[in-house]
Amino acid sequence: MRRLSLLVLACALTLSACAVPHQRGDLTLEKTAARKSEVSAVFSEYRKVRNTAIELLDAKPLSIVESGPVLAIDSGSFEVSQRLAKTQKQDTGAFEVTDVQTPRFGKYPLWFFAVVHDDSARVNRVQIFERETAVEPWLLVASPETLADTQIPDIRREGGNALTVKPDDAVGMSMSASAAAKAYAKTLADPASADASKVADDSFIKQMRTTAENNAKLEGVTFSQSWGNDPVKYVLRTTDGGALAFVTLLRLDTYEVKDGLTISWPEGTPQQAFLSSGISSSGKLRYYHQVLLYIPPGTGKPRAIGQFGGVVSADSQ
């Protein structure tokens, strides 16, 4: 694995670095998504934008460097900081990009894969940067985190470029990435689901079940949780014949409270920031979770090896 030493951004809280505008020429047929020399400029420029957002304590500048669920999660983090009157630390530390994989595409959008090692946080951020057109900037669209000692499967290369997999392609695996994402979401929604036997009972599933079980124990509160998944777009073949899929999960926590009761969260928590007055009738908390799903070759069960997420909105009555 080629290692590139770069100064890059580590976003505050649980958030990750992302990309910035970088102009390139028009796409030609079967052109590599991005040259490795471009990645350095992407990370360097991003840090300037990120630190501006931190200085202002305003997520608006991030809209030119992030997109989709990553931007929603980041914006949620800034909103928490604003509501709790907390500052975020600017990003000035040295980080290391340990892997960059650039697929080839015949048309836009283009995207590439990067792994950023953060030694201080003891995590790796596994990221996808996408560019919609020749005049659009590179935007961070996925950034799940793994523990530093988690083995990230090597990406298969063909002709010097990373090999992508169509989301509905199940060749050599127990299921396609799209099917795995659906089975994973159904398993999270219902432990008794028939799909629960199709995916591994990994640490993320256990963590989410524990959270749901604790919420369900609240006296005088009826708690329910639902899960769904966005369509899968980013899948890479691994050298062992399996695949790495970037899956975005949508989680909705719903609370129905008996008359005369109000539930609240501890001071300083994201939930308390979004619902400072608590819930006295009914309320909802919405989350995004980006999961790095590894689908082993053969009959192996898909499992999450990394995740990144947070509260993105809430409402109550």
Summarize it.
With 317 residues, the chain is of the alpha+beta class.
Describe what this molecule looks like in 3D.
The protein has 317 residues and is an alpha+beta fold. It has one domain (31-316). 22% of the residues lie in helices and 31% in strands. It has helices at 36-56, 68-83, 177-189, 203-216, 270-274, and strands at residues 4-6, 31-32, 95-101, 104-105, 110-118, 123-131, 139-142, 145-147, 157-158, 161-162, 221-229, 234-237, 243-257, 282-295, 303-316. The strands form four sheets. Strands 1, 3, 5, 6, 7 and 8 form a six-stranded antiparallel sheet that branches. Mean pLDDT is 86; it is low at 1-29.
Shape: globular
Count of individual helical segments: 5
Helicity range: 10-25%
Q: From the helix content, strand content and strand pairing, which structural class follows?
A: alpha+beta
Give the strand content: 25-35%
- The radius of gyration is 20 Å
Beta strand count: 15
Mean of all residue-level pLDDT scores: 86
Distance between the termini: 53 Å
Oligomeric grouping of the chains? single chain
Q: How many separate domains?
A: 1
Largest sheet, in brief, is:
6 strands, antiparallel
**SSE pattern:** EEHHEEEEEEEEHHEEEHEE
List low-pLDDT spans.
1-29
